[in-house]
Amino acid sequence: MCEIKNLTELLVRKALDEYMEHNELPCKCEKCRADIITYALNRLPPKYFSTRRGEIIKNAESQLLYDKTRILTELVAGITLVAANPAHER
Asked: Across the strands, what pairs with 48?
């Protein structure tokens, strides 16, 4: 059986890691990180692949500045929302 992956999810996770290298998050716990990623993924189009060739093609498409900007925009919105409403005690 082929494994199906969502390139958008991989890119969002990578973008959040890169964002955290240069910026502080109000909370860095796994729950908050998951909520931020979920927020962004629910607002971005999925890009599925099941082969290495498909991954390469989708990855090339996602290198467009529009995609990077859109991912970062949704991540920052998710960070703001989760920081204001964490799913745990502060």
From this structure: 6
Q: What's the longest Cα–Cα distance across the chain?
A: 44
Mind listing the pLDDT tens digit for each residue in 42-90? 999 998 878 777 667 766 666 666 688 999 999 999 999 999 999 888 6
Burial 30-43 (b: 16+ CB within 10 A, else e): eebbebbbebbbee
Q: Return the sign of the alpha-carbon dihedral for residues 16, 30, 84, 35.
A: positive
| Domains in the chain, number | 1
Provide the H-helix boundaries in 1-90. Answer: 7-22, 30-41, 52-62, 65-84
Q: 31 lies in which domain range?
A: 5-84
Q: How far apart are CA 85 and CA 75, in angstroms?
A: 15
